[in-house]
Design goal:
This protein is an alpha/beta fold and 671 residues long. The protein has four domains: 5-230, Serine Threonine Protein Phosphatase 5, Tetratricopeptide repeat (Alpha Horseshoe); 242-403 and 593-610, Rossmann fold (3-Layer(aba) Sandwich); 414-587, Rossmann fold (3-Layer(aba) Sandwich); 622-669, no CATH class. 51% of the residues lie in helices and 8% in strands. It has a seven-stranded parallel beta sheet, covered by helices on one side. The protein has a five-stranded parallel beta sheet with strand order 10-9-8-11-12. The chain starts with a helix and ends in a 12-residue tail after the last helix.
Length: 671
């Protein structure tokens, strides 16, 4: 119950007297916090400070006052209070961290970085507190500088952070991702006293998909990441022991979609049409949002289409799981996987009888609580099921697309984009974190063989652009033949695809929604499938778009086909015409058909569940596969045929089994 005004006034009177000790002050603040009285907490601290100006712990009280002001959304007041605390006691480290946080929240990232770096430079070299706060400051600096598109400085901060303390998996994950995005090759190499193998041990599943075409390692890495980085939610049994509605045998199926990307984002763009097309007479659709605080046109479409929109922000994992459980969800679909702002721990609390991995993350989750993965026969061919902990359910084409996407009526001209009017424009508007050195060298071979061509890439970062131009010059290709596009709003981004002649896919992590965008706009996509899910999406999409001949069989075939196509403008024009003519009828953009098959898959999962057949993920020996994988040259895996690839793991697993017998697992022996 709220604290009565009389009691609040009483606390203020006490704060103005010499009788209120620091302990009493903190106890009173906690009482007000429990009563959800943030403004009164601020008033309490303000009054106490005014009457205790010579107290020896005044710097700490100013810090508490700043926390209270921040909680009350008075960030400017919090900045002032934190600066007072620092002035009173410069070696009081925590206010420096919070000062940077508040400055960042006020939209002043440069001032935030300066605050954190002042702390880094002022700290003594070796004391427990100095190490703790220096690491905290450097992590914040790395995060903000990356968001501010200053990757080289972010890289330096994170490298220094690891030099102080090696065992920081989250910093390794951040650094590897940062280096991939900068095209700093190899992205994983010995780092001072930190060996490459130690960095590989901590790589995130998303970065692993960009780094290697090794589905055994990717499965094992997802499992290890799930155990170490997701871990066990606090007090899981308190949630799991609560009654949960079982699968119902009649009525509408309740489908919950969980995502941080139900907004202006590739996943949000694609899911709008899916949710709008669902049969709402047979399926009750719940959209659970866990992303940034925004409302845009894409999100409004989803809100209007879903039967229920629930914002999980502000709910901790247990509260979110209880909310989903209370909604009686039959099938909960994870549209995030291991991507930004995911709520994976909510799935760990098993709020629905069946959990599905689909669309947002192109790989296995390696978890004990994702039961199915939605795919098609191209992204997960028959015989590849053992690379996935989930049971595979296949649609004719697994990828969602929006038929109602908005395209700007007029795009930029070639001249405005920096593209020569008579050039053959080879493009790849993927994020550069997907570009590996092997692929880039293939592209440069293509450019050398087709002098009239240019390569159009997506990058706003001048340092990365210069790095790629330098590599091109060393390979005998003029740096001016690399043209870079900046980020644009989605309608303008789609429209500029009209300037391209041929899209060159990356490997091992190919274009996914970007490839669909290109195909929708009539740009042929040349792709090379590998073993892993992420490397096979392009092959699925171009087949579904009606151009199966653009699926290559080897790197040499890929280079040869690119050269032949780039030198044959009439053939490129014919391919473009086929795409445009077939767009409305092709499998890739037939959302009603996709939804019918998706709903049939949900029914299949539900009926299996009613029979007691809920899949149990196979997680046997994955720690051993991970242990083996980090010792391999993962980037070179793509050069091996399937027999040699499997032999790598079989032989090393046999060595382990000789000394430490391995539990039964036929994963590597299946055909």
């Amino acid at each position: 119950m709220p604290i009565k005004h009389e009691l609040t006034r009483s606390l203020m009177v006490q704060a103005a007297s010499a009788d209120m000790t620091v302990g009493m002050l903190i106890e009173a603040a906690e009482a007000l916090r429990a009563a959800n009285q943030p403004d009164q907490i601020c008033g309490l601290y303000k009054t106490w400070i005014a009457h205790h100006g010579d107290h020896p712990t005044l710097h700490a009280i100013y810090f508490n006052y700043a926390v209270a002001l921040a909680d009350a959304q008075d960030r400017t007041g919090a900045v002032n209070a934190l600066r007072h605390a620092i002035l009173m006691k410069p070696d009081f480290f925590q206010p420096h961290i919070n000062l940077g946080n508040q400055l960042e929240a006020l939209g002043r990232p440069e001032a935030a970085v300066a605050a954190w770096m002042a702390l880094v430079n002022a700290l003594p070299s070796v004391t427990p507190d100095a190490v703790t706060f220096k690491i905290a400051a450097l992590k914040q600096v790395g995060r903000v500088l990356e968001a501010g598109h200053v990757p080289a400085s972010a890289d330096a901060a994170l490298t220094e952070c690891l030099a102080i303390h090696q065992d920081q998996p989250e910093v390794v994950q951040h650094l590897v991702s940062l280096r991939q995005g900068q095209c700093r090759w190899p992205p994983i190499a010995d780092l001072g006293r930190i060996p490459r193998q130690r960095l590989l041990t901590a790589i995130s599943p998303l970065s692993a998909s960009c780094h290697t075409d090794d589905p055994i390692f990717q499965l094992a890495n997802a499992y290890v990441y799930n155990r170490r980085s997701i871990g066990v939610p606090p007090h899981p049994r308190a949630v799991l022991d609560q009654p949960r509605p079982g699968l119902r045998s009649d009525g509408k199926l309740r489908i919950g979609y969980v995502s941080s990307d139900l907004r202006h984002h590739a996943v949000g763009f694609a899911m709008t049409d899916i949710i709008e097309t669902h049969d709402h007479d047979r399926f009750e659709i719940f959209a659970y949002y866990c992303g940034i605080d925004t409302i845009d046109q894409t999100q409004l479409r989803i809100r209007n289409a879903a039967d229920h929109w629930i914002d999980l922000n502000g709910l901790d994992d247990a509260q979110a799981a209880c909310r989903i459980r209370g909604d009686g969800i039959d099938i909960l679909v994870d549209l995030n996987g291991y991507t930004k702002d995911a709520r994976t721990r909510v799935f760990a609390l098993r709020p629905a009888p069946i959990a599905v991995n689909w669309f947002g993350f192109p790989n296995t989750m390696g978890s004990s609580y994702h039961h199915y993965i939605i795919a098609d026969e191209h992204v997960i061919p028959p015989g590849h099921e053992h690379f996935f902990s989930e049971r595979v359910i296949r649609l004719p084409c697994y990828q969602a697309n929006d038929r109602k996407r908005v395209v700007a009526p007029e795009g930029i001209t070639r001249a405005e984009a920096g593209l020569a009017e008579d050039a053959v424009v080879l493009c790849c508007l993927n994020g550069l974190q997907k570009l590996t050195e092997r692929v880039f060298l293939r592209w440069l071979r293509i450019l050398r063989e087709v002098p009239a061509s240019v390569l159009w890439l997506l990058s706003d970062n001048t340092e990365t652009q210069a790095r790629l131009r330098e590599v091109a010059e060393r390979q005998g290709v003029g740096g001016h033949r690399l043209v870079f596009a900046g980020k644009r709003a989605n309608p303008e981004h789609l429209a500029r695809f009209r300037l391209a002649d041929l899209f060159l896919d990356t490997f091992p992590y190919g274009a996914h929604t970007t490839a669909s965008d290109a195909l929708w706009m009539g740009v042929p996509v040349l792709t090379l499938p590998g073993r892993s899910f992420a490397s096979r999406v392009g092959a699925s999409l171009v087949r579904a778009a009606g151009l199966p001949e653009l699926v290559c069989t080897s790197p040499e075939h890929y280079v040869r086909m690119a050269i032949e196509l780039a030198a044959n403008r009439p053939l490129l024009a014919a391919l473009k015409n086929r795409l445009v003519a077939g767009r409305e009828a092709c499998l890739l953009f037939d959302t009603p058909a996709l939804v019918r098959h998706l709903e049939a898959a949900y029914r299949q999962m539900h009926e299996a569940g009613l029979r007691g057949d809920i899949p149990v993920p196979d997680l046997r020996n994955l720690d051993l596969y991970h242990e083996i994988g980090v010792t391999l040259d993962l980037e070179a895996i793509e050069t091996l045929d399937d027999g040699a690839y499997r032999a790598l793991y079989r032989e090393r697993l046999a060595d382990i089994d000789y000394v430490f017998p391995v539990a039964g697992d036929t994963r590597l022996w299946r055909t």
